[in-house]
Amino acid sequence: MLLNGDEAIGMGAIAAGCRFYAGYPITPATDVMEYMTGRVDQFGGKVVQAEDELSAINMALGAARAGARAMTATSGPGIDLMTETFGLVATSETPLVICDVMRSGPSTGMPTKQEQGDLNMTLYGGHGEIPRFVVAPTTVSECFWKTVEAFNLAEKYQTPVFLVSDLAMAVTEQTFSPETFDMDEVEIERGKVVDENEIDTWLDEKGRFQAHFAAADGVSPRAFPGTTDGAHMTTGLEHDELGRRTEDTDVRLEQVDKRQRKVETAREQEDFDYREFGDPEADTLVISWGSNEGALREGLTLLEEDGYDVRFLSVPYIFPRPDLTEEIEAAEDVIVVECNATGQFADVIEHDVLERVQRINKYNGVRFKADELATEIKQTLDTPAEATQ
User: Fold this and answer.
1) pLDDT at 387 over 80
2) Which alpha helices (H) appear in the chain, and where do they start and end?
3) Does the pLDDT at position 384 exceed 80?
């Protein structure tokens, strides 16, 4: 089969059980919606083309509150518009997948050109402190599998998930054998969904369902509409365990801490690891994320031919992300490669490990090429580190 990254995301969403998609056409994310249109209907799902991105995310939020696995996809300008509702998604603890297929920005930018400039937006966007997951597939086939994982993370931890791709991945078409996407390997985990047989455990002394119960792991019980004794409120205002608005200071602390605990629980339970290539014993460590993986893997071969041994870590999890402290401490030279001007992922890594890294950035709207990366890495290694910082 022939697929590009957007189509792989659409196929992954359907395989993961997504039954509602709302979106507004925008380059380079439109192919996600086009792929799902007609196909998801065969499984009882629905695609809605909304009048704008604000409507799209609010429709998806409503579907998720009703119990459907729901998703929206857009690019940077759409993420800007969706940010207010993103806060509501997180505060109401609604599982939702939001796909950002990045392009050159800011503003309208260059809609048909490559860039990885939205990392900070997906990590930090929104007022207040919002728990979230950020997953960034590194290959076209991973677009399928990471989409499945994104839906599972969203429902297991009742937290919004940013699925971050980019134009290079969106338009790259590859041929795959059907076995690459073995549907028998797809696992659907819906988290702490409770039915009539289990709900008594989560009722208070007055028989009211505690949809925001301050569980030790941060994850509350979830009852779909229509569940006997499962009726409850939810709001974007701070709320108590019943979902009723409150400004009680103790309850505020309890609910904020509870929402943050979900991230720590996920760190303990999930495998947020990197993909490794090249020479594991090399003194030179290259780190990257997203669609740069393919060019870097090819570049490793060129570097090896020229006598350069390199260890390459490709990171598909932006938050929570793997701790790279030991890997960086073991290396003599650390280079972070990404398609943006400021080195957003390099900044994150430096914050994590309290070590300076060297950077190779490209932001002219064109993806990296293997020979270009090999040359850039050699030049970086042959230049004193202080001259590159």
Assistant:
1) no
2) 5-15, 30-36, 53-65, 76-91, 119-124, 140-157, 167-171, 249-269, 293-305, 325-329, 344-353, 370-381, 385-388
3) no
CA end-to-end distance (rounded Å), the chain: 45
Q: Which tokens sit at 223?
A: 């009852």
* Per-residue pLDDT reduced to its tens digit, 235-289: 999 999 999 999 999 999 999 999 999 999 999 999 999 999 999 999 999 999 9
Residue keyed to tokens 């690459």: 180
Residue owning tokens 């599982």: 95
Q: Which of 306, 326, 283 is nearest to 373 (CA)?
A: 306
13 phi, psi to nearest 5 deg = -65, -45
386 has pLDDT over 60? no
> Pick from 213, 247, 269: which residue ends a domain?
269
Residue matched to tokens 């189509």: 7
Distance CA 154, CA 265 (A): 13
- Do 162 and 14 sit in the same domain of this protein? yes
CB atoms within 10 A of CB 357: 23
Regarding whether 149 and 251 lie in a shared domain, the answer is no
Is residue 261 domain-shared with residue 294, that is, in the same domain? no
Domain-embedded: residue 87: yes
DSSP state of 218: S
3-state helix, strand, coil in the chain (%, to 5): 40, 20, 40
CA distance 307 to 103: 35
SS (H, E, C) 111-140: CCCCCCCCHHHHHHCCCCCCCCEEECCCCH
Q: What is the DSSP letter of 219?
A: P
Note whether 27 and 170 are same-domain residues.
yes
How would you list the strands of the sheet with 46-49, edge to edge? 46-49, 18-23, 69-74, 97-102, 161-166, 133-135, 317-319
Domain co-membership, 110 together with 135: yes
CA–CA separation, 362 and 108 (whole Å): 19
User: Residue 385 has what pLDDT?
Assistant: 58
Number of structural domains found in the chain: 3
What's the gap between Cα 295 and its chain centre? Answer: 22
d(CA 111, CA 100): 13
Full domain range(s) for residue 335: 275-388
